[in-house]
Amino acid sequence: MPFLAGYAILYHMEALNSLEQWDDFVEGRYDPNRKTEDFRKYDDSAPSGVRDFYQLNHTNQTRDFVLEKKRQYASRGRTEMGIWEALEYLNTLVDDSDPDTDLSQIEHCLQTAEAIRRDGHPRWMVLAGLMHDLGKVLCLYGEPQWAVVGDTFPVGCAWSNKIVFPEFFAQNPDAKVPEYQTRNGVYEEGCGLDKVDLSWGHDEYLYHVTKDYLPMEALYMIRYHSFYPWHREGQYQHLMNDQDRAMLPWVQKFNPYDLYSKSAARPKVSDVKPFYEELIQEYFPARIAW
Ligand code: FE
Ligand code: FE
Q1: pTM listed for this prediction
Q2: Per residue in 185-212, pLDDT tens?
Q3: Which residues lie at CB < 5 A from ion ligand 1?
Q4: How many domains is the chain partitioned into structurally?
Q5: 137 is in which domain, residue-wise?
Q6: Taking ligand 2, which is a single-atom ion, which protein residues have CB atoms under 5 Å away?
């Protein structure tokens, strides 16, 4: 059973010092001053923990794994929390990284939201910025890093070679399933991304938690913000439908706020909390199902 063997050996490795280490890697990779042809050089210089992380992610994110996680989490039967409560819960995630230089989870959420607010974007986009990483509570539920963060990609069809470290897919059991290795795989051309299963992580989980409450543009930002092969590399266009084409510019508009708002001043939580509590109330009831 190659599937079980590969899974068991690699499952307990974690690899990243902290979840932020993946965010930092992506931020550096997509630095506006970096040329596309230098991506590979950048990838090869990644710390070993980051490489190990991608190896785990690419090996273990099989179609079966993704479908199982969707069954487990899409019913939102785990708990009930308000949005601000979820932010505070996420903030209990303890990172091994240096507390002086790294932002807390709540600070990254607030910096992203504040940068969007400063640029005068719609209120739902500010809220999407505040909330976009709340799905990382999966880590606090005990999910391994490789099932929480990482650039996402479709499962059940051929992997694009524009996905970072494509060589690590050789160890994924789906590599041996011929049906999953064609251009469209189990999908129909133009079926729309909603029908496409992406590797499991914080994006997809938060989409299921928030889909009854936010406008479609905000839901696309939440659901696809880590889908770099699509919104940055232009891959998988053959699976898109008209709705995806209409929403892609919003996902692209959101991305720089996620990547590059870290250098901005650290917002004082107590100063901005009243604004965000009112904004949350505009869209959400006091508690929602997770
Ligand atoms: Fe994220
Ligand atoms: Fe983020």
Answers
A1: 0.93
A2: 999 999 999 999 999 999 999 999 999 9
A3: 133
A4: 1
A5: 4-289
A6: 133, 258
